[in-house]
Amino acid sequence: MKPWGLLTLLSLSAWGAVDINTATLSELEAVKGIGPEKARAIVAYRQRHGPFKRLGALTRVRGFGQASVAKLRGKLTVEERGGQADPVSR
Predict the structure, then answer these.
(1) 20-33: buried (b, 16+ CB within 10 Å) or exposed (e) per residue?
(2) In Å, how far are 47, 64 from 18, measured between CA atoms?
(3) DSSP classification of residue 15
């Protein structure tokens, strides 16, 4: 693990849910249930299609089904511009 990776892991538990629209690869990889391949898929999807409007849209990303998204609720979020969580994403 890279030195900053441990810091990311520690900060995730302290700060709560990770915003899938702004998270870096290392921040996404630090979430239990998301490895390097899924993290790359999330970033690639948002680069091609723009920001996610709700967490449920994660099912459009290869490797994520409804069951995996359900398990990640509370660990991931989609924040509106202005910093408030989208209530539909939770």
Answers:
(1) bbebeebbbbbbee
(2) 17, 16
(3) H
**Is-contact 90 73, C-beta < 8 A?**
yes
3-89 placed in CATH 1.10.150.280: yes
Residue 31 tokens, joined = 């979430």
Give pLDDT tens digits for 15-50: 689 999 999 999 999 999 999 999 999 999 999 999
Domains of the chain, residue spans: 3-89
pTM (predicted TM-score): 0.73
What are the distances in angstroms from CA 26 to CA 10, 37, 52, 81? Answer: 12, 11, 19, 22
Q: What is the DSSP string of 36-70?
A: HHHHHHHHHHHHHH---SSGGGGGGSTT--HHHHH
